[in-house]
Write a structure and sequence with these properties.
single chain; 4 helices; 0% strand
């Protein structure tokens, strides 16, 4: 396992939560979180809660507009 000098980024935890990592990469992320003194399941739950909070704070039409380009594979300016 490689050593990491920075906190495990949220995008990597999100990929773990979504099952987008192969078993070796998932184990590495879990090990990184453990080395930071963090529980992977707690980190995933916290990220999920944050996602829900963000979605609930946005008008549904705005969320739909942001989701359409992502679903079609196009990036958009989210500003």
């Amino acid at each position: 396992m490689a050593t990491h000098d920075t906190k495990t980024p949220d995008w990597l935890i999100e990929r773990l939560a979504l099952g987008e990592l192969d078993s070796a990469a998932a184990a590495d992320v879990r090990a990184r979180l453990a080395a930071e003194g963090r529980d992977a399941d707690v980190a995933i739950a916290a990220l999920g809660a944050s996602n829900r909070e963000i979605l609930e704070s946005l008008p549904p039409a705005r969320v739909a507009a942001l989701s359409r380009p992502a679903a079609s594979g196009h990036c958009s300016d989210r500003g």
